[in-house]
């Protein structure tokens, strides 16, 4: 209950924060509109009674009530529509920013990788518009309830038995909410196949998979899979719709019976002289109005509950974001420089929600100022170790020690500020070139000297020089005057981004040069290694993950991982002398290049 209230308060708060006056005015006008139906019925009653009694005064009162009601209707309708759009637009923008801040700001990566979290995040992203709907749903729901109350009072004045219409309306709302639950449940249960269906659609329609789709003639297969998954999703939802429709038809029958009963009752009352002709008009109008009130309450109530569901997901995300912050019982700041280095002390790890250990008992000393290479076959656990060193995940067993202190004690955000990275799956920021590189240290976006220095270290100077407006060029052909770059050029800019930070304690290159030829990669890393060794005062550890042994060989220390365990460790010559896996793989690659 507390969570529900919190979810409601949070999302209605979005509306009032994004557009306070419009939100307040929307609620007022919505309630005014909700009263139009009952007041129209009442003025009709007055007018009919006035005609029957030939009472001019009563006719004037009835006419005035009707005129005011129509005026309120016209004015409120106009402002209400304006408020609805303004509130939704502004709230949507605010909710989007909140989602971006939460999803992108969580220290861990688990919510991007675990299926149960992905479903939640997927639904939140898909249904993000709902987060902006709370003001609208609440205003509509409150207005429908006010209308319901006013209609009930007017009906009771004619005859208390007519309140059975209100009772039936209550039952109707209950049935409709059950029908709505059935639909919502089906949507939730088909969340994963729906994600798969979307994945197929994305594969079939975006540029990323375009080349392989054509070469492998995959389009037909992807369309078939999309069809298969669609059938699964749609048949489950269709079945739920039928069940909901069966409930709704029972509801319709009850309503029809109540409507006929109410008209019969008021006619009997009128024929026996206990009700006026105006009462008959009033009951007919209000019986119809009651149907609309029920539809409104159910519709807005459904929107309200649906919005509440998304709001609860949002609260889940907020709580998850808080819980994903590493528990640092005895926090300490990251050291200014590394004197000793980083130690892996019997590190063991399995991904949350899985059983298989990916790293087992990994121990190694990464000396301050050293260039360390991490090699091993696909799936050996190299990237996983990198994720642990970047503090995206924490070890299940053992410790990572930074100058002898447990990394668990350093708050993740602080550690991230002292880590520089370049990954194989780099982000393609389609901004101006200076921003594409400069986002690594936003304070340096306008510092041409720093940007050019990083570009030079990444061997990317010529790429930017060839751009029409140099650093100010817009990247990405989907933007006006935007220019596109090759995969290797994008990767070099990502590398420059990784090299912009001046005081990192750990620099990680996880196959960031896979799109470059081996000679270029080798030359680049020779340069990084020289720079890393020259920058001993900072004690930075440079960690390089590569499958190219020509590059790896110049590292001070090479760690060979196999099935999540360290198979060998040493420098190039030591490992060659041992004649084990490294020597074998090195020989194989050298032979291929001879
Ligand atoms: N998020 C995840 N959840 C569960 N298992 C994962 C996850 N990420 C990776 N794995 C598993 O962990 C193992 C090691 O993966 P990792 O990416 O660390 O290997 P790698 O040595 O970097 O491989 P490659 O050279 O192919 O990049 C693999 O078996 C992989 O399936």
TrEMBL record:
Q: Where are the transmembrane segments?
A: 21-39, 59-81, 252-271, 283-306
Membrane topology label: Multi-pass membrane protein
SMART domains xrefs: AAA
One Pfam family recorded for the sequence: ABC_tran
Which residues are in the ABC transporter domain? 342-588
Which residue numbers delimit the ABC transmembrane type-1 domain?
A: 134-304
What molecular function terms (GO) are annotated for this protein? ATP binding
Q: Which UniProt keywords apply?
A: ATP-binding, Membrane, Nucleotide-binding, Transmembrane, Transmembrane helix
- Annotated signal sequence range: none
Q: Does the keyword Membrane apply?
A: yes
**Domain of life of the native organism:** Bacteria
Write out the annotated subcellular location: Cell membrane
Q: Which PANTHER family match?
A: ATP-BINDING CASSETTE SUB-FAMILY B MEMBER 10, MITOCHONDRIAL, ATP-DEPENDENT PERMEASE MDL1, MITOCHONDRIAL
Provide the protein name: ABC transporter ATP-binding protein
């Amino acid at each position: 209950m507390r969570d529900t209230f919190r979810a409601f308060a949070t999302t209605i708060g979005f509306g009032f924060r994004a557009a306070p006056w419009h939100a307040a005015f929307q609620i007022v006008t919505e309630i005014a509109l909700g009263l139009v139906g009952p007041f129209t019925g009442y003025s009709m009653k007055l007018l009919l009674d006035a005609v029957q009694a030939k009472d001019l005064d009563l006719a004037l009162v009835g006419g005035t009530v009707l005129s005011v009601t129509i005026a309120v209707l016209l004015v409120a309708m106009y402002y209400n529509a304006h408020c609805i759009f303004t509130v939704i637009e502004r709230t949507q923008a605010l909710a989007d920013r909140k989602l971006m801040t939460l999803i992108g700001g969580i220290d861990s990566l688990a919510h991007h990788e675990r299926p149960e979290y992905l479903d939640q995040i997927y639904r939140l992203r898909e249904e993000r518009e709902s987060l902006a709907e709370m003001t609208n749903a609440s205003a509509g729901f409150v207005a429908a309830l006010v209308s319901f109350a006013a209609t009930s009072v007017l009906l009771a004045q004619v005859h208390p038995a007519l309140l059975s219409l209100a009772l039936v309306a209550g039952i109707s709302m209950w049935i409709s909410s059950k029908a709505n639950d059935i639909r919502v449940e089906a949507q939730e249960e088909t969340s994963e196949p729906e994600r798969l269906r979307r994945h197929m659609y994305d594969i079939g329609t975006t540029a990323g998979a375009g080349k392989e789709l054509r070469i492998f003639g995959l389009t037909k297969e992807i369309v078939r899979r999309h069809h298969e998954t669609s059938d699964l999703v749609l048949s489950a939802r269709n079945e739920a719709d039928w069940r909901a429709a069966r409930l709704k038809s029972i509801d319709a029958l009850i309503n029809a019976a109540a409507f006929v009963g109410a008209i019969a009752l008021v006619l009997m009352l009128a024929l026996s002289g206990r009700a006026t002709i105006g009462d008959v008009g009033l009951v007919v109008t209000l019986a119809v109005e009651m149907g609309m009130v029920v539809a409104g309450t159910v519709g807005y109530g459904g929107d309200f509950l649906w919005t509440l569901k998304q709001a609860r997901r949002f609260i889940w995300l907020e709580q998850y974001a808080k819980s994903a912050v590493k528990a640092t019982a005895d926090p300490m700041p990251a050291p200014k420089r590394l004197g000793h280095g980083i130690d892996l002390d019997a590190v063991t790890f399995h991904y949350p929600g899985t059983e298989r250990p990916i790293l087992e008992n990994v121990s190694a000393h990464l000396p301050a100022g050293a260039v360390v290479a991490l090699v091993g076959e696909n799936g050996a656990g190299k990237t996983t170790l990198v994720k642990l060193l970047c503090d995206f995940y924490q070890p299940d067993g053992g410790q990572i020690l930074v100058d002898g202190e447990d990394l668990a004690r350093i708050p993740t955000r602080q550690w991230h500020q002292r880590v520089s990275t370049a990954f194989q799956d780099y982000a393609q920021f389609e901004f101006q070139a200076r921003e594409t590189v400069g986002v690594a240290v936003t304070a340096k976006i306008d510092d041409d000297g720093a940007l050019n220095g990083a570009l030079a270290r990444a061997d990317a100077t010529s790429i930017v020089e060839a751009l029409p407006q140099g650093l100010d060029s817009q990247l990405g052909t989907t933007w006006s005057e935007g220019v596109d770059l090759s995969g290797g050029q994008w990767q070099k800019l990502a590398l420059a981004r990784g090299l912009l930070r001046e005081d990192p304690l750990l620099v990680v290159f996880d196959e960031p040069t896979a799109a470059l030829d081996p000679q270029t990669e080798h030359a680049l890393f020779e340069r990084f290694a020289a720079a890393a060794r020259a920058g001993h005062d900072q004690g930075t550890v440079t960690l390089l993950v590569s499958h190219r042994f020509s590059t790896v060989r110049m590292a001070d220390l090479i760690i060979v991982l196999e099935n999540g365990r360290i198979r060998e460790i040493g420098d190039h010559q030591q490992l060659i002398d041992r004649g084990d896996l490294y020597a074998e793989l090195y020989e194989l690659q050298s032979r291929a290049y001879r």
